[in-house]
Write a structure and sequence with these properties.
The protein has 379 residues and is of the alpha/beta class. The protein folds into two domains: 5-243, Type I PLP-dependent aspartate aminotransferase-like (Major domain) (Aspartate Aminotransferase, domain 2); 248-378, Aspartate Aminotransferase, domain 1, CATH 3.90.1150. Helices cover 37% and strands 15% of the residues. The protein has 13 helices and twelve strands. It has helices at residues 5-11, 52-65, 76-88, 101-111, 155-164, 177-180, 214-227, 233-243, 246-265, 284-290, 305-315, 345-350, 367-378, and strands spanning 69-73, 92-96, 117-121, 137-143, 168-172, 190-194, 208-212, 270-274, 297-302, 320-321, 331-333, 357-361. Strands 1-7-6-5-4-2-3 form a seven-stranded mixed β-sheet, sandwiched between helices. The chain has a five-stranded mixed β-sheet with strand order 8-9-12-11-10. Helix 4 (101-111) links the parallel strand 2 (92-96) and strand 3. Helix 1 (5-11) runs antiparallel to helix 2 (52-65), helix 3 packs across helix 4 and helix 3 (76-88) crosses helix 7 (214-227). The protein is globular. It starts with a helix and ends with a helix.
């Protein structure tokens, strides 16, 4: 019997060791050999991501996203970079032009050194993609909603294109979470997460995840085991616990973000709001068709440029001026000075990321308290 996602978040993958309802921490770094190991990755050892804490998380993550297998890693960037290297090492990747700053920096600064060529594509212009194909193109890489401009790519077209050209399709699903979007159900091959964010939800660990077919996850796992991006069992337990409230948290964040976006869109001090839940968003219709919710992330620009944005950041009281996203607290930041500071000013300008842009990760606080806080900070 297939349960709904709320039930799977609670019960799937639970070993119930010794009858324990809560997941225990397995502190051992090494485990007895069972005799059924068929290769290096089957040896029961903590660096190989296969302690009981890892195994439970793998089962739960695969279940909630509809994958055959999953892997947790030491960070979101560990999941992203290792997955790219595993599926496209020695080849070429088509990558969405607007990406999280760390991913963009990996492509522009490190990928070629590690044997991966790339070209950036406009993920909303399918007619332009074929011109970027090479004989050694192996993968296409996109984000569900782009960080920090909240664009929504033509995901159906990307999946079709990848299948037509026998490419592995990878998607960073961090912003949406499995509550709002499950990429594998829509035909993507690998769904990636910074589990630091919504999956954990409490700003107290760093972790990553990759979910997909057994074959692809096996390859990503093998490379991860050699590169050493292992998630500590203590962090595994915190992530495991955080997942159980994912549906409750994200639905509150969806509601709060929509209310805050509507308030900002009507405010005289705000020049522009980026949120796919707004009817004015250029891809609102696509987001409504694809997503079960519009997410807890938005961005906006104040009138008055970077100086006005910086003043706003210094005036909020309920919201916190800090990096990261996806936790229960509302966080605000200026991407040009934080998440995308590694990009050159020219690269930021080319994708439309201004110095005045403020990114908001909406938490689960009271909706009115959040709006009042933003109102006084904008006054």
């Amino acid at each position: 019997m297939q349960h709904e996602i709320e039930t799977r978040l609670i019960h799937d993958g639970e070993p119930r060791s010794e009858g324990a309802v809560g997941m225990p921490i397995f502190r051992s770094s090494t485990f007895l050999t069972r005799g059924d190991e068929s290769g290096y990755d089957d040896i029961r050892y903590i660096r190989l991501n296969n302690t009981p804490n890892h195994v439970a998380l793998h089962a739960k993550l695969a279940s909630i996203e509809g994958g055959e297998a999953a892997l947790v890693t030491a960070s979101g960037m560990a999941a992203i970079t290792t997955s790219i290297l595993a599926v496209a090492g020695g080849g070429h990747v088509l990558a969405q032009r607007v990406l999280y700053g760390g991913t963009h920096d990996f492509f522009t600064g490190e990928a070629r050194k590690l044997g991966v060529e790339y070209d950036f594509i406009d993920a909303d212009d399918p007619a332009s993609w074929s011109a970027k194909l090479r004989p050694n193109t192996k993968a296409v890489y996109v984000e569900t909603m782009t960080n920090p401009l909240l664009d929504v790519a033509d995901h159906a077209a990307i999946v079709r294109f990848a299948r037509e050209h026998r490419l592995v399709s990878l998607i960073d699903n961090t912003f949406a979470s499995p509550i709002n979007f499950r990429p594998i159900e829509h035909g993507y091959d690998v769904s990636l997460h910074s589990a630091t964010k919504y999956l954990n939800g409490h700003d107290d660990i760093v972790a990553g995840a990759a979910i997909g077919s057994r074959e692809l996850v096996r390859g990503i796992t093998h490379l991860t085991n050699h590169l050493g991006g292992t998630l500590d069992p203590h962090a595994c337990v915190l992530l495991h616990r955080g997942l159980k409230t994912l549906a409750l948290r994200v639905r509150q964040q969806n509601a709060n973000a929509l209310a805050l976006a509507r308030f900002l869109a009507s405010h005289a001090a705000v020049a522009r709001v980026n949120y796919p839940g707004l009817e004015t968003h250029p891809r609102h219709a696509r987001a409504r068709e694809l997503f079960d919710g519009f997410g807890g992330m938005l961005s906006f620009e104040t009138n008055g440029g970077a100086a006005a944005a910086q003043r706003f950041l210094g005036r909020v009281h309920v919201a916190l001026h800090a990096p990261s996203l996806g936790g229960v607290e509302t966080l605000v930041s200026r991407p040009a000075a934080m998440s995308h500071v590694g990009m050159s000013a020219e690269d930021r300008a080319a994708i439309g990321l201004s110095d005045a842009l403020i990114r908001v990760s909406v938490g689960i606080e009271n909706e009115k308290d959040l709006i009042d806080d933003f109102a006084q900070a904008l006054a």
